[in-house]
Amino acid sequence: MPSQNPLIPLSVNGAPTPRKIVHIDMDAFYASVEQRDNPDLRGRPVVVAWRGNRSVVCAASYEARRFGVRSAMPALTAERLCPGAVFIPPDFVRYKEASRAIRGIFERHTDLIEPLSLDEAYLDVTENKTGLPTATLVAKTIRQQIRAELNLVASAGVAPNKFLAKIASDWKKPDGLFVIQPHEAQSFLQPLTVGRIPGVGQVTESRMKAVGIATISDLFNLDLAQLEAHFGRYGIRLHQLARGIDHNPVVPNRASKSISAEDTFERDIPLAETELLIRRLAEKVWRGSSENARCARTVVLKLKTREFATITRSLTPLSPPCSCNELTAIALSLRERVEFGPHQLFRLVGVGLSNFQLEDIPPTPAHLDNIHQPN
């Protein structure tokens, strides 16, 4: 009889075809690379960040995390929490090199690899290339190879889908391996807070608590109509995740949804003074992604006011920008559509490309203007 377990998708003939998904997450990746390459940093609190009033933390070693230092925290806050921390400016060339070496280890085991960033990826090892009998053994072997060959530490989660595997990889960090079997999913999920769901940030968690949802069990006990009433289409996704259901496959070589670069000013400045940085950011975006840039239909300009309101202006021209000069010209023209008085000051500017079109389909011209007030 075909399996009725929603965690196990059915093949065309109705036979159960359980997936075996591994989520690998490198531990304090940027900081760990710095400690690996400089023995004097080992065992010391390391913060990867530029120094400065507007700088934020890119990564923190576990020694620094004991003081409360976290990624995306202002560097000044990190320095206050951990006065003895060693601040290292980020070196993304070395981090990308280490990430490529990690990817090489993944490729020994499977071709179904979906990177999420330099330091984490999903692997579908339902059928692995090395003939190892279980997904758990594949994950264990990958972690051993990363440690032995690269002197870095990875945590791993093993589960029948991506959602559960990502939660599992975080469960025993650092240097952990955790497995969720299909029959264990419900009992494992029910007590967890909704903040454990990937993608549920502080704002969404607060909205949930406001309507009496604190745990995944609370989500499970609401029917689909109630969740849709509270959260719209996202309620459908929450209804599935509360039951451990995630049919999203591992997608190798996933196309980028957007490419962008942004920078925060040392001091808040008026709009008229942003031109030079817009030019630099446009050049950075074009230089770093010129092959993909020619498939991008939409140019986006992002600004953040001194009051932390985020403003975006975007344009989808009849044809994608064909040069850095054209990208720059469009970005600067978008600045002209920012309708603020001369006394408004800004703290951040960004330039991006989105709406990638790989097939030769005529685009629809569009102007999109948005202002997002800070939460």
Give a description of the structure:
It is a single chain. With 375 residues, the protein is α+β, with helices and mostly antiparallel strands. The protein is built from 14 helices and 13 strands. Among the domains are: 63 residues, MutS, DNA mismatch repair protein, domain I, CATH 3.40.1170.60; 52 residues, Orthogonal Bundle (DNA polymerase, domain 1); 115 residues, DNA polymerase, Y-family, little finger domain (Dna Ligase, domain 1). Strand 5 and strand 6 form a beta hairpin. Helix 4 crosses helix 5, helix 10 crosses helix 11 and helix 12 packs antiparallel against helix 14. The N terminus and C terminus are likely disordered.
Features:
single chain, alpha+beta, MutS, DNA mismatch repair protein, domain I, five-stranded mixed β-sheet, 13 strands
